[in-house]
Write a structure and sequence with these properties.
Elements: H1 3-12, H2 15-40, H3 43-47, H4 57-95, H5 110-122, H6 124-130, H7 167-185, H8 191-221, H9 238-257, H10 261-265
Helix pairs in contact: 2-4, 2-7, 5-7, 7-8, 8-9
Length: about 270
C-alpha cells in the first residue's frame, strides 16, 4: 500500500476518536459515582470495606481522585498517543499535497464487540455497586449474580459484592478500551508511536483482564464454593501478569500487525 493510500485510509477510520470519547465518559462516570457514593453511603456498607472509613466529603474526594489518577491516566495516554499520531500524519499528508481526507468509518469487529459485551455483562454487579445498589435487589439479575449473600467461608461475614468501587470494574473498563483500540493500532502512522502503543496495549490488556477476572472469580465463583482458593491480587504475582503480557503482545503483533506489514514498507526511507 502506498503512503498516500495508507494516510487516506487512516483518516477514514474514526475508531480511535470514538474510543477517546468512550474512555473519558467512563472516567467521568467512575469519578462522579465514587465522589457521590462515599459521601452518602450507609456507614455499615463502608465497614465491609474498611473499618476506618466513614462517609464524608473528604472520603468521596479521595476515592474520586484515586479513580481520576488511574483511569484518567489511561484516558490521557490514549488521547495523547492517538491525537499526536493524527497530528504527525496530517502534517505528512499536507507535505504530500493531497486532499480528500474523508472521515466516517467506524469498525471494531464482531469478535471484539462480542467480547466486550460479555465483559460488561459480567461487570454489572460492580456497575450497580458504583451507584450504591446491590444487583441482588434487581429482578432477574439477582438470580444470575451473587451480591448480598454472605458466603459460607471461614472469616467471611460480609456480602459477596460490597457497595462502592471495585478494582474489577477498573479492569473491565480498561480491558474493554484496549480491545476497542486494537483495530486502530495498524493505522498508527509513526513507527515509534506504533511500537510504544503495541507494548502498552499488550501490558494493559493482560493486566486489566487479570484484574477483571481475579475480582469476578473471587466474588462470583469462589464464594459459591465452586473453587477453594482465592486468586492472588492483580500486580502481586509477576509470574502471572508477565507471561500474559508477552503472549498478548505476540498475539497482537503476529495476527493484527504483521499481516499489515506491507503498509509499513511504504514508510521505509
Amino acid at each position: 500500500m502506498q503512503e498516500k493510500s495508507f494516510l487516506r485510509r487512516k483518516f477514514e477510520e474514526n475508531t480511535d476518536l470514538v474510543v477517546i470519547l468512550i474512555a473519558w465518559a467512563l472516567v467521568m462516570f467512575t469519578v462522579i459515582s465514587n465522589f457521590v457514593f462515599y459521601q452518602i453511603a450507609d456507614p455499615a456498607d463502608l465497614f465491609f470495606i474498611s473499618k476506618n472509613w466513614t462517609p464524608s466529603a473528604q472520603l468521596g474526594l479521595e476515592k474520586a481522585v484515586e479513580s481520576l489518577k488511574y483511569l484518567g491516566g489511561v484516558a490521557i495516554t490514549i488521547t495523547a498517543v492517538f491525537l499526536l499520531d493524527r497530528l504527525i500524519a496530517s502534517r505528512k499528508a499536507e507535505n504530500l499535497k493531497f486532499i480528500e481526507l474523508k472521515n466516517g468509518n467506524l469498525r471494531f469487529g464482531r469478535k471484539i464487540n462480542l467480547t466486550i459485551l460479555i465483559v460488561l455483562f459480567l461487570s454489572l454487579p460492580w456497575f450497580f455497586a458504583q451507584l450504591g445498589i446491590y444487583i441482588g435487589d434487581i429482578p432477574v439479575l439477582s438470580s444470575v449474580f451473587f451480591s448480598k449473600q454472605i458466603p459460607d467461608l471461614e472469616g467471611q461475614r460480609f456480602p459477596t459484592v460490597h457497595l462502592g468501587h471495585h478494582h474489577g470494574w477498573d479492569g473491565a473498563v480498561i480491558f474493554s478500551l484496549m480491545l476497542l483500540l486494537i483495530p486502530s493500532i495498524k493505522w498508527i502512522y509513526d513507527k515509534r508511536i506504533k511500537v510504544l502503543a503495541l507494548a502498552g496495549l499488550s501490558v494493559m490488556i493482560s493486566f486489566s483482564f487479570y484484574q477483571f477476572a481475579e475480582d469476578f472469580i473471587n466474588e462470583q465463583v469462589l464464594k459459591r464454593l465452586l473453587i477453594q482458593n482465592f486468586l492472588p491480587g492483580p500486580g502481586s504475582d509477576l509470574q502471572i501478569t508477565l507471561p500474559l503480557s508477552i503472549l498478548t503482545g505476540a498475539f497482537i503483533y503476529f495476527l493484527l500487525w504483521k499481516q499489515n506489514n506491507d503498509d509499513d514498507k511504504a514508510f521505509d526511507e
